[in-house]
Amino acid sequence: MKKKIELIGAPVAFGQQKLGVDFGPDAIRYAGVVERLKRIGHEVIDSGNIALPRLDIERFQSDQSGLRNYEEILAYNEELRRRVSKSIEAGHFPVVLGGDHSLAIGSISAVSQYYQSLGVIWYDAHGDLNIPEESPSGNVHGMSLRVLAGEGNQQLVELGGFTPKVTPDRIVLIGMRDLDYGERAYIKKHHIKTYTMADVDALGIHQVIQESIAYLKDRTDGVHLSLDVDALDPHETPGTGTKVSGGLTYRESHFALELLQQSGLITSMDLVEVNPLLDQGNHTAEQAVALLGSFFGETLL
After folding, report:
1. Has residue 300 been placed in a domain?
2. Most buried pick, 30, 90, 112, 196, via CB within 10 A?
3. pLDDT score at 88
């Protein structure tokens, strides 16, 4: 089914501490995302990037108490929420190009307004389920999913005027291999559907995705896919800031996205944490574009 895809660049870097992720959306464009999606047969609207406030390098790299760059993250996610809401109201399929994973607070806050029971697939090496008092770093990109589930900083939690944006019983985590102790306790307490890399090894990616689809199908009326390129092994996607060895392969990820596309469940998407300053010849952005191709129906024959 052909879609009207809207690409929204969100070059936010405030959620973590490495320069370069703010160049991610343009690296993905340079890798040919618009042309590739058009070749599949979709209409593509590139809305450009949401402007960043000036990045104070000295402050960005300095030690900060509490939530790092909190005011900038709050303001940016509010603007992103408005932009994604406009995309949905126009009947588009929004794809938010990051930027770090703190942007999911804004994107999913927007999407959740239009569904009674939104589901979220978090395709990532990390759970991003920390709260400020338990975070080892203060980096908001490691707290975004917990905020969306209704816990954490009050203003972030209440972005858009309602909370939660997603409940734990409608979350699926895929690719987990680096979880802090507080995140593990939260996952166990709320019985969040979680597939670690050990589960992927034991079951195979086909069964993992089929089980995820079956789990979400009858309890959601829309599903947002939030894909962090660090879900893949660093050999596959070297251009990202929080590398963890032993991740998903390029082929597994293509197959996963093909299956999700065939399910018809996914209604919106983030693609985050591409950092061309840490990359090799824009390889990670090229992989990201190829993954989008698979998700939007690209086939060999």
Report:
1. no
2. 112
3. 98
